[in-house]
Protein: Phosphopantetheine adenylyltransferase
Amino acid sequence: MQRIALFPGSFDPFTKGHEDIVLRGLKLFDEIIIGIGRNTSKQRYFPLEVMSGLIESTFAEYPAVKVVTYDDLTANVARSLGARFLLRGLRNTTDFEYENSISQVNRYVYEDVETVFLITSPHLAPISSSIIRELHRYGKTIDEFLPYQLITNEK
Structure:
């Protein structure tokens, strides 16, 4: 049986930290599906279609990485995609507290799913999408935090 992992998130934007988790995850899984979810409690900063295209181009040379968008419970999407694993990155203990609760709920919805946590590489731990959005909002260069070139008007 293939080991398929869903890497869910809003990815607004997708950072070098996210890229690191995917690349390291490829050593554990046969396929990783990056799932860009529509979060009902968040207003997107970067358009979903733009981010989806940028992520696809980032992993163009990795046939085992796919990108999907979804508007459903993550566990339901994992089940429909045949993913028995959810891949998540942890930067700190705050992330762990949040992710632990979510993993329990996902297991409630889809009892055959396992959440696998990878600790963020130390040099990438300070990077968060919310900080990057704030820098971008106020005109600061964010290229060093992203694994792709963001055209300045793509907001």
Summary: The domain at 4-145 is CATH 3.40.50.620 (Rossmann fold).
